[in-house]
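hey so i finally got around to running both of the ones u sent me last week. sorry it took forever, my laptop kept dying halfway thru and i had to restart like 3 times lol. anyway pasting them below in the order u listed, first the sequence line then the structure token line for each. didnt double check formatting much so if smth looks off just lmk and ill redo it

first one:
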Amino acid sequence: MKLAKKTSLAVTGFFVAAIFLIPYIRMLITALTPANEVFEIPANYLPTSFDFSNFFTVWDSGPVARYILNTVIIAGDLGRTHCRGPSGLLFGSLPVQRAWPGLVVGFGNPNVRPNLDGDRNLS
């Protein structure tokens, strides 16, 4: 590639990354802003001092640890659920399923259902 094309690609990538990162940076700065400076008019985009006590106040005001645990549990369950479809499609299309039908039971193949009585139900 020519130098001008590489440079324009890098500059464009930088601006796109900045557009996506600016809200997160603003969120962090607002979280560190003291309470009396948050709603000032005219707005000051950089606080005069950073206040880390906001994080401790939120942590002490409610069951934040439980909220984080709930998020991990739900996100983990959704991740497993969304992985079953593509893996079932993959293993369902393999020619191996005729030789070992039990291989794809755990991956969501609707044609193979486990039977707890001990015999296989391949209907």
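and the second one:
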Amino acid sequence: MRPTLKIGAKGPDVVRLQTRLNALPSARARLTVNGVFDKNTLQRVKEFQTSTFVDGVVDANDWDALLGKEPEQRETFFTDGRVLRDPNGNAVVLRGINLPLLDDWSFPGQDRLEDIGQTGANAVRIAWYINYGSPERPPYSVADLDQFLTRCKEMKMVAVLGLWDLTCDFDPMLVNSRLMPWWTSDEVVTVLQKHQRHLVINLANELGAFRWADDQKAALTDFTNAYKTALTAVRTKLRAPVMIDAPDCGTSIHAWTAIGQQLIDHDPDHNVLLSVHAYWADFDGMPHIDSVTAANLPIVFGEIANKQDSEANGQTQFCFYDLDGLAENHAPPSGFTYQALLRKLKTENVGWFAWSWWPDGCPSRNIAKYNEQTGAFEGFGSYGDDIVNDPIYGLKAMAERASIFT
């Protein structure tokens, strides 16, 4: 018989209770599994009991609800409502770093993962190119990608692999004509199937328009149809979760309340993550977070940053907007700050990836510092220190490894 537990109880049954509660979606921080039914455990029990009788006492009925159906296990990560679960069936919130891997011309050879490991990140989002576009860049191959994904596993990080070839292009149909042949090629599929247990597939970085299009309705229809076609194609070969970036360079979060469920329903595996990039200097996306979470959609913020670039006369002006409230350059018209966003995402248990590790055209946006002469890692800049060490939302405080790595 399963014992009745209440505050003050101790022992292995409380360990089991805490472990099972941690596998469930929650607006609260994960419990420390210490075998002590403390105040934090009581709060999580009451949160779990909201649909039944709330008394904070775990009785036989509560045990049946908690353990009657053990976590589903699969070969890959998978979405369950707005919760992402690892192959063991346990909930995980991705909190990690964007790595512009191929912008670092010391790769192949160096990969910076040992340095990133010092942040506590549980995931890394990898910027890859089919064609980097510069003949001067040292060559790289799918075999190099294979070795890097192996390293991600060794470092106990979920690998989110994306293609950057069409960043911010307005035409979503290019995902099928330009990118899907690579994703579904035999060479690539062999590698990705090998690593699918710790992999998320980000089909295209920031492809497609909606808010910025002349005909928004037609643009959103084109975006939806393009990604439906891509999902059909990728599911002939691969089972890992598919991450799709929102239109308008990833910024239009409200597109997901309109079409997100359509894309999930179209996927034969119903295994789609909806990504948002919070470059919100001139667009207030914060109110839409509640709408997306209320719709039970699995969102993740694929990019958050302290600075936002701007375009003028065809030229990129790096670090133009201050998304950190520091008033070093230009204040964002929206009043947005990434710090307020991260506090909100903690409350909602929504994952995120900070842009970017290194190197970046905006020096203030580099999380890491490297010696220009020796290439040695020299710690974090002020932005990086906040991302890593903030006691409320920082990676060391909040990122927890997926259970497949523990």
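quick thing i noticed on the 2nd:
The chain has two domains: 12-67, 78-405.
anyway thats it, ttyl
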